[in-house]
Amino acid sequence: MTEKRGVLAGQQTHTDCIVAEVDCLGSRDVVLVGLGYAGIPVGEAAERCFRRCGR
Fold it and tell me: pLDDT at position 18, please?
């Protein structure tokens, strides 16, 4: 994952990083898991990836 020094990391930043990492994998068979706060950006990333893959 790319380092983002000096950037305020919020929910959107976390979601964007997860989506970018999934894109780098180039796979449509990905399982995302998030506990606590991580469940929020993971859920948003899953929704964005789901729509992109057309499943």
Answer: 92
Report the distance separating Cα 27 and Cα 35, nearest Å.
Answer: 23
Per-residue pLDDT at 45: 94
Provide the whole-model pTM: 0.75
DSSP string, 1-52: ----TTS---HHHHHHHHHHHHHHHT-S-------GGGHHHHHHHHHHHHHH
- Under DSSP, the state recorded for 6 is T
Helix or strand or coil: residue 53?
Answer: helix
